[in-house]
Please model this.
Amino acid sequence: MKLTQTVQKGGCAAKVAATELRKILSQVRFPKSDPNLLVDGGLFDDAAIYKVSSDLALVQTLDFFTPIVDTPKLFGRIAAANSLSDVYAMGGEPKTAMAILAFPLATLENQVCIDVLQGASDVMSEAQVNFVGGHSIDDDTLKFGLSVTGYVHPDHVWSNAKAQVGDVLILTKPLGTGTVTAALKRQELSENEMEEVLNSMAQCNRVLDLLTPEEALGIHAATDITGFGLAGHSMQMAKASEKTLRFEMKKLPQFALAQVCLEKKCLTKAHRTNAEYTQNFLKVQSESENDRLILFDPQTSGGLLLSVAPEMAEAILRKLNKRFSRATQVGVVQPRSDFFAIID
Amino acid sequence: MKLTQTVQKGGCAAKVAATELRKILSQVRFPKSDPNLLVDGGLFDDAAIYKVSSDLALVQTLDFFTPIVDTPKLFGRIAAANSLSDVYAMGGEPKTAMAILAFPLATLENQVCIDVLQGASDVMSEAQVNFVGGHSIDDDTLKFGLSVTGYVHPDHVWSNAKAQVGDVLILTKPLGTGTVTAALKRQELSENEMEEVLNSMAQCNRVLDLLTPEEALGIHAATDITGFGLAGHSMQMAKASEKTLRFEMKKLPQFALAQVCLEKKCLTKAHRTNAEYTQNFLKVQSESENDRLILFDPQTSGGLLLSVAPEMAEAILRKLNKRFSRATQVGVVQPRSDFFAIID
Model:
């Protein structure tokens, strides 16, 4: 039984598209927020920041999806790492997590459910997160994820809006999970062959514990690269910060398999919608189709994109490399130009 | 288009059964909790309590389900009220909520989604809760709910474990949502005919703002009556408190339609599983089958069962009746006997 064959759309591909969602949300009158809500979850996607006191705020996020890999335990690990990532991307430390579980009791063995929960629990143990409950439902297809609450100092939130001119951009994980997992779903490769990709998706974006408090302050802005790909999430950060992010194509870390799978045209709907989403705001010098596609590749449990004070970038990268061997300097922040992102 | 006809199992009936879930969870090695986790979410069901400081703890809960009524806005209201209820049942005040939305884009119009979100937003506005984000997925059947975080003083948690001998038991809403919504799903009655039941399910279990701080301290224990019915949730409170709850059958408030629908044998699987769950711990004097069934009737967004200091019960009930017209004294707490609950 291969989990990816039990669902039509795997992982973030099952998301309601951003444009569709925006149309729907624009017609809802939402409740008025109180002044403690510092950052709104907005498009149903990022983490919200809710201030508790002058030195404590909650970071809250919620994510769940359908199987993106075949091994249940691995799916649980990846789903948990992916859910925790939004807290890390705000500079927060996750504290509690609740499970969201939709499980087809009639068609999957209980052992699948046990393994998914075990994979998630193992990640929570590593991340020192308390597992505080959740809700399960008998459903047609498996879905799993976490609702996570973390702590952050209200003055030290890594928002999207604080990238500064001259900052160095660091990406903590290689790109390419979208095309490689599409190949897995098409059964063009096995999990064994994509071990590097699986390990990367299963890894938490925990970076704060590697850094001194001073180094942590050197990170001005951050976002995690997920469904909208490097292009989409870079655009969001550039827009919020009113800057231009300038990348070097050849420095972007990619999984060895990514180009192989792109060659085989293992694509998802998101490759197209991410291209559409960013088309007016992105300048790509390369003429190569695969270079473009890797920019639009939707990541599941992708890396953090960090905007870092230049004088601290090398020291920070050295420490990140202890855990994230493929973390790389990929570009710089420039004054705002006609494009939000330029890829040389 | 009737929402209840788009799903096989409505509301809490779609839950993974408690016995099944317990079997699964017993085989998972969960992460170690830190000492701030005062109350564990345990069986995936109740709210967890996580201590932030000596005078503040977080109450966290998560709930979502399939449509239990046909009108989308009403479904959104009921789902939101139901999710918030677990925070109220711990003596907490909800502060933030994130949406869990599974929506069949191919088969339902966007307006359905807008209405569900609007219903939920209206309840959050009334409850003064911040809507801070969420996650949506394209799925075969509609599911909706909230992940809620509230505040509570760590010393004033209304746990299940603190019912005291002599306490008066107050139930804030009538019983019978299970059988009445089963009748709706079988199309044996219309939403117009069940207005009393719909209004009750759509009402928040917010009680603290009706009471003085002194009266609030007079509430020793509380639980909300949901999927396990009055029998199941009473048993859980009695067990945790090591007491016996003694009810008077004729005092239990019921919707006028409840007996009508039970007569028509509008039952759910939970009527049977709740009977099984409680059979060794429950003593029912009545010989009437329908009297028994109402005790096992699974509630969606049911009332709070409050265990109240006897000298304050009348004053508290008077205040509750301003908002909950059918709130009633239904029994008393006695020393533990052979049964956890006795219904005279």
